[in-house]
Amino acid sequence: MKIGRDKLRRSKAAITTNEDLRLENLIPAVAAKAYGYNLFNIWDLTLYQFYDQFSRINSNFSLDIASTRWAIWGEDAYDCDPWYTDVHKQ
Q1: Angle at 15 between CA 31 and CA 9, to 5 degrees
Q2: How far apart are CA 28 and CA 44, in angstroms?
Q3: What pTM did the predictor assign?
Q4: Cα-based distances in Å from 89 to 4, 10, 82
């Protein structure tokens, strides 16, 4: 049992957490950026729905930056695939 506990302790110590992805930090970020959610109705979402919204908002943010850069300096054909790519496969 001691070997198993030591192994578990080492694996927990190896995991790094991103403090920016804490729920209390993401709720206001999603409420500020989402079109239909605010600080009052965001609590009606399940955790899965909330993180899905966050993931999609984050993807759209990155896509907006990429499309703006392409519109200004783009020489190659624009890739529209990221807009409808399944975010759950990432």
Answers
A1: 135
A2: 14
A3: 0.66
A4: 32, 29, 12
Domain that holds residue 77: 20-89
59 neighbors 87 (Cβ within 8 angstroms): yes
From the centroid of its chain, how far is CA 7? 30
Please report whether residue 74 resides in a domain.
Answer: yes
Number of domains in the chain: 1
Residue 61 CA to residue 36 CA, distance in Å, equals 17
CA torsion angle 17 23 25 30 (round to 10): 120
Lowest-pLDDT range, 3-7, 9-13, 34-38, 47-51? 9-13
